[in-house]
Design a protein that fits this description.
The chain is built from 5 helices and 5 strands, in the order ααααβββββα. The chain has 150 residues and is of the alpha+beta class. The protein has a 3-stranded mixed sheet, with no helix packed on it.
């Protein structure tokens, strides 16, 4: 999300979603929302802290706690087992959305596909009495640009 207007719209939407879930609007959350809207590759709390701390005297623990809030509100999705995240590309999803993250193993480019059907536990397989709240799947491979350059 490199377009300045798109980044500002994204950050504003993040803050609105957090407010709708009962979280206060703070400068730190605004800074975090603005920073995460600018990443095109997976990032972690330290990456965000490094950029946010240039604008605000905020400690790492505060960024980390807010990262958890953003993640719990489905504004961030975890990718891989290396503690990195991507910003959700479709913030106003309904309760039936399935998020699939495609990640290139060579350049770390990510792209998200959001579908409208979430898995349910109303079938013969899977845990009984399990209410699905969100679904994020990561698919790894080689993107077209990396495949063409090989």
């Amino acid at each position: 999300m490199t377009d300045s207007n798109a980044s500002q719209d994204y950050a504003k939407s993040c803050i609105e979603i957090l407010a709708s879930k009962g979280f206060k609007r703070t400068k730190t959350r605004e800074y975090i929302a603005n920073v995460i809207s600018g990443f095109e590759k997976p990032f972690g709390p330290k990456d965000v802290h490094d950029l946010v701390s240039k604008k605000s005297n905020v400690d790492f623990a505060t960024v980390y706690r807010n990262f958890q809030i953003f993640s719990d509100c489905d504004l961030l999705h975890p990718v891989g087992s290396h503690g990195k995240f991507v910003a959700c590309s479709k913030l106003h999803c309904d309760d039936h959305a399935v998020h699939t993250i495609f990640r290139c193993k060579k350049c770390d480019m990510t792209q998200e596909l959001v579908e409208v059907k979430k898995p349910t536990a109303n079938h013969s397989e899977g845990p009984q009495a399990f209410k699905v709240e969100s679904s994020v799947t990561e698919v790894t491979g080689i993107c077209a640009a990396c495949a063409a350059s090989s």
